[in-house]
């Protein structure tokens, strides 16, 4: 049981390049989330998904896109990378129990992205 | 809207002394509350949660948290801190969107600095 995995661990992009950050979970969770964390700061929600085919914006969605075609995968796409997107990106997943109570989120190890 | 506040950016603690990390909440209805820890260059790890029941919740790594309804607080505690407890700690509260989907609202984080 690997939990939440993210690839790559590190990446350097040039301004204007594009890339996809991969996230996979093997816990059959319906909820998945993408956060960014700037140095010394807290987490900001970029996008989230409540199941395959259903996504919604978080508080900082500009410059990013997501898709969710399977329960397991939730890739984050950066188009036209900018220096302001230099950050550490975390993927997380969660679920609700049978009573509808929200369970804790499980986090991946993160992707450290630098845009030069 | 559901929210949590962490009033201290940093807490310094000597090894062997008790550690307290403060969190206050603003929640409508019955609160669910979480604590997470982030060690350097790692993703967030779940420590404990309050759903209902006993006001003292025990979690991982010897941590516990006390739910206080009258003071709207959920402080994280450890009776005897270790230098290895040095990390960033986040309080969080789940909330539902207008579409009844779940998201986590994180506090700003508290950096714990342990000294020998």
Map the helices and strands.
The complex is a heterodimer of chains A (116) and B (116).
Chain A: E1 4-7, E2 10-13, E3 19-25, E4 31-37, E5 43-51, E6 54-57, E7 64-66, E8 76-78, E9 87-94, E10 106-107, E11 111-115
Parallel strand pairs in A: 2-11
Antiparallel strand pairs in A: 1-3, 3-8, 4-5, 4-9, 5-6, 7-8, 9-10, 9-11
Chain B: E1 3-5, E2 10-14, E3 19-21, E4 24-26, E5 33-38, E6 45-50, E7 56-58, E8 64-68, E9 73-78, E10 87-96, E11 102-106, E12 110-115
Parallel strand pairs in B: 2-12
Antiparallel strand pairs in B: 1-4, 3-9, 5-6, 5-10, 7-8, 8-9, 10-11, 10-12
First-last Cα distance of chain B: 41 Å
What general outline of chain A do the C-alpha atoms trace? elongated
What is the N-to-C succession of helices and strands of chain B? EEEEEEEEEEEE
Radius of gyration of chain A, Cα only, in angstroms?
14 Å
* Rough outline of chain B: globular
Supply Rg of chain B.
Answer: 14 Å
Largest sheet composition of chain A: 7 strands, mixed
The mean pLDDT of chain B is 93
Helix amount of chain B, in percent?
under 10%
Helix tally of chain A? Answer: 0
Question: What do you see in this structure?
Answer:
The complex is a heterodimer of chains A (116) and B (116). Chain A has 116 residues and is an all-beta fold. In chain A, 0% of the residues lie in helices and 48% in strands. Chain A starts with a strand and ends with a strand. The mean pLDDT of chain A is 94. With 116 residues, chain B is mostly beta strands. Chain B is built from no helices and 12 strands. Chain B has strands spanning 3-5, 10-14, 19-21, 24-26, 33-38, 45-50, 56-58, 64-68, 73-78, 87-96, 102-106, 110-115. In chain B, the strands form 3 sheets. In chain B, strands 2, 5, 6, 10, 11 and 12 form a 6-stranded mixed β-sheet that branches. In chain B, strands 3-9-8-7 form a 4-stranded antiparallel β-sheet, with no helix packed on it. A two-stranded antiparallel ribbon of chain B has the order 1-4. Chain B is globular. At the A-B interface, strand 5, strand 9 and strand 10 of A face strand 6 and strand 11 of B.
């Amino acid at each position: 049981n690997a939990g939440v995995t993210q690839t790559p661990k590190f990446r350097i992009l040039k301004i204007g390049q594009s890339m996809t950050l991969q996230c996979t979970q093997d816990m059959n969770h319906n909820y998945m989330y993408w956060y960014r964390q700037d140095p010394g700061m807290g987490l900001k929600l970029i996008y989230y998904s409540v199941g395959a085919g259903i996504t919604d914006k978080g508080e900082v969605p500009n410059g990013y896109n997501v898709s969710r075609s399977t329960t397991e995968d939730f890739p984050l796409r950066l188009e036209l990378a900018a220096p302001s997107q230099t950050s550490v990106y975390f993927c997380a997943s969660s679920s609700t129990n049978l009573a509808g109570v929200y369970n804790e989120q499980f986090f991946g190890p993160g992707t450290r992205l630098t845009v030069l | 809207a559901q929210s949590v506040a962490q009033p201290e950016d940093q807490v310094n603690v000597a090894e062997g002394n008790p550690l307290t990390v403060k969190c206050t909440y603003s929640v409508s209805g019955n609160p669910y509350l979480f604590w997470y820890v982030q060690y350097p260059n790692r993703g967030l790890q779940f420590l404990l949660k309050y759903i209902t029941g006993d006001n003292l919740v025990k979690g991982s790594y010897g941590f516990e948290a006390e739910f206080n309804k009258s003071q709207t607080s959920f402080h994280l505690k450890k009776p005897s801190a270790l230098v290895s407890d040095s990390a960033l700690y986040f309080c969080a509260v789940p909330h539902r969107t207008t579409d009844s989907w779940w998201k986590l609202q994180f506090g700003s984080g508290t950096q714990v600095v342990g000294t020998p």
